[in-house]
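Morning run. Coffee first, then this:
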Amino acid sequence: MLNQYLNKIERKCRKIAIPNLMLYIVLGMAVVWIADLILSTNPNNNVSLYELISFNRDKILHGEVWRVISFVFMPPSTLFLLIPIILYFYWFMGSSLEYKWGSFKFNVFYFTGIIGCIAAGFIFGFATNYYLDLSLFLAFAILFPNEQLLAFFVIPIKAKWLALIDGIILLYDFIKGSNTIRIFIILSIINIFIFFGKDFFSMIYYMVRRFKFRHIKKIK
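And here it is:
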């Protein structure tokens, strides 16, 4: 149903899609990362580029409107040497999804995630692109489950198993977190629910049915 609806819209709005969207996102993250490194080398500098582009509802309402979208370009919070590798991985996943779906559908997926993050930001006062980037990986793992990736950049492992680990961590955060965290997670990965929710719940339904069938068979 969703594919049919998107196909109809695509025929009318194909020209407004942004090709190579993930390339621009990753380049933006790289620019922010490098610029912040350069600024940090100046002992007299008190400006944090990360702080300037982060989502802050109060500052947005006081005129710093660029923060509504600039938080998307926040580089991942990780070890210095790993950032270029992770940015490459973001580009690889986004390009793979765009190749599978086409530019328009990938744009819809990614911008839906951004809108969810912005909505969470205005509700709770802050937003992060962490779950948005996670949704990118989950979508990649769903569509390319047997793609070989390197865990810890050494151990080859299929994408579906890495996604399972991330899914367990996400579920743990959802269960153990506050209501604020739960709503924030749901809004931030709403693109996953929209694009894959039906397939996911269908899978759960058939798994439950199979379990019940086997249980009844054993009783008989």
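The mean pLDDT is 81. Good start to the day.
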